Amino acid sequence: MENKRLNQAVEKLKSTGVRMTPQRYAILEYLLSSLGHPTADEIYRALEGKFPNMSVATVYNNLRVFREAGLVRELTYGDASSRFDANMHDHYHIICRECSRIVDFEYPSLMDVEKEAAQKTGFMVENHRMEVYGLCKSCHEAMVR
């Protein structure tokens, strides 16, 4: 499945004129295989051994290219660093207030809320974001010990 998603992402980038460099391919592969929501620094640290000449700026620039192509979402929560999510399907996030772990979860789309908001306010609604906060199981268990 991951290979199919990777190939589709590469083709999408190529169709928009983006040249596939080894670094770009590795960053994209890392994002698509990541179960977490890594920061640019985490991606850089994971790949720096394989690409010693790659800079953090290279990672940021490639993430911007991927975002503009619709391949990743940039998640900004509070003052923390942006995190990146290659899961482009409708889903929501629950965030641990202690360790900042982010976990995806499915929930019926909130499109009705968007329609209601548009009708009541006259706004042209573009999107929505729902975040749920709490303690992950590990942090909760550490606190009750």
Automatic annotation (TrEMBL):
<feature type="binding site">
    <location>
        <position position="136"/>
    </location>
    <ligand>
        <name>Zn(2+)</name>
    </ligand>
</feature>
<dbReference type="GO" id="GO:0003700">
    <property type="term" value="F:DNA-binding transcription factor activity"/>
</dbReference>
<dbReference type="GO" id="GO:0000976">
    <property type="term" value="F:transcription cis-regulatory region binding"/>
</dbReference>
<keyword id="KW-0963">Cytoplasm</keyword>
<dbReference type="InterPro" id="IPR043135">
    <property type="entry name" value="Fur_C"/>
</dbReference>
<keyword id="KW-0805">Transcription regulation</keyword>
<keyword id="KW-0464">Manganese</keyword>
<feature type="binding site">
    <location>
        <position position="139"/>
    </location>
    <ligand>
        <name>Zn(2+)</name>
    </ligand>
</feature>
<keyword id="KW-0408">Iron</keyword>
<dbReference type="GO" id="GO:0045892">
    <property type="term" value="P:negative regulation of DNA-templated transcription"/>
</dbReference>
<feature type="binding site">
    <location>
        <position position="128"/>
    </location>
    <ligand>
        <name>Fe cation</name>
    </ligand>
</feature>
<protein>
    <submittedName>
        <fullName>Fur family transcriptional regulator, peroxide stress response regulator</fullName>
    </submittedName>
</protein>
<feature type="binding site">
    <location>
        <position position="96"/>
    </location>
    <ligand>
        <name>Zn(2+)</name>
    </ligand>
</feature>
<comment type="similarity">
    <text>Belongs to the Fur family.</text>
</comment>
<keyword id="KW-0479">Metal-binding</keyword>
<keyword id="KW-0862">Zinc</keyword>
<dbReference type="InterPro" id="IPR002481">
    <property type="entry name" value="FUR"/>
</dbReference>
<dbReference type="InterPro" id="IPR036388">
    <property type="entry name" value="WH-like_DNA-bd_sf"/>
</dbReference>
<dbReference type="GO" id="GO:0008270">
    <property type="term" value="F:zinc ion binding"/>
</dbReference>
<dbReference type="Pfam" id="PF01475">
    <property type="entry name" value="FUR"/>
</dbReference>
<keyword id="KW-0238">DNA-binding</keyword>
<comment type="function">
    <text>Manganese-dependent repressor that controls a regulon of oxidative stress resistance and iron-storage proteins. May act as a hydrogen peroxide and organic hydroperoxide sensor.</text>
</comment>
<dbReference type="InterPro" id="IPR036390">
    <property type="entry name" value="WH_DNA-bd_sf"/>
</dbReference>
<feature type="binding site">
    <location>
        <position position="99"/>
    </location>
    <ligand>
        <name>Zn(2+)</name>
    </ligand>
</feature>
<keyword id="KW-0804">Transcription</keyword>
<keyword id="KW-0678">Repressor</keyword>
<dbReference type="GO" id="GO:0005737">
    <property type="term" value="C:cytoplasm"/>
</dbReference>
<dbReference type="GO" id="GO:1900376">
    <property type="term" value="P:regulation of secondary metabolite biosynthetic process"/>
</dbReference>
